[in-house]
Amino acid sequence: MKAEILKKLxxxxxxxxxQKTTKHFVADFAGRTFKENDLSLAMPVFNNQEIxxxxxxxxxxxxxxxxxxxxxxxxxxxxATETVAGKDLTLKAGDLLLLDVGTPHAIQALGKDDLxxxxxxxxxxxxxxxxxxxxxxxxxxxxxxxxxxxxxxxVADLLIAEFWSKNPSKNLLHxxxxxxxxxxxxxxxxxxxxxxQSPIVSQMLKEISENFKTTSLKKFAEENSYNSSYLGSLFxxxxxxxxxxxxxxxxxxxAAKLLKTSKLPVSEIAxxxxxxxxxxxxxxxxxxxxxxxKEMREENKx
Length: 302
Prior knowledge:
This protein is α+β, with helices and mostly antiparallel strands. The chain has twelve helices and nine strands. Helix 4 (150-163) runs antiparallel to helix 5. Residues 30-43 have low confidence and may be disordered.
């Protein structure tokens, strides 16, 4: 990374100066990278760019939130701790965390020597989790600097430096982004092959993703001529949770997305994702997101 780019990234922004004093999180995207006419959309404004690069502000905890776009958190230097989908992760210099659409995550306050860079992919970037792990369910992937290809770090550094340069070239950014996508795809494919997940479990995860509203373990077993008890045990062994738990997780992710992007009543959203028991829906929603559906919708408005 060029010294001049690092120096620019290390300079305190107005938001960081405020957070350093108050220790309270300040949402810095209003009026800069998000549309203000309808905050419920919370979609980036790219101005014909495939990717937007920003520095995560220091000195205050960033509360749990989700995005309606694919995002990568790349640690340029220092260390960062995030809670992603309920799990604590520590990133070190060179690590890249890729977050799927709708994945909840929170970031602990960064120290003055920590540099966490956000890479936000637009729809024109033509990049998704479905390409990385076809047929498998995941909310995030971590590419560790000491395990993934070294070129991932190299290209990420080049992309960030170009974006933050005085006169960034769209052509260069396009090529760097293309190279980064290829490297991530290749690394994810290698990791998937190494994990040797059963093909039938991959099919079950795909079934949950595509038919979360109507599918069931029994239905899938009958349609594919398997014993449901055997499939249930195999799924839990390889995925870590039961088929029904994974299905509920998928439904809740879709429900959270609908709360932020539609004006449907909460009761209608519950039905839309396939949950008819209101008590169950509210209970599981609160367990996953730490708030009620109404509170999430209100928070999203602000």
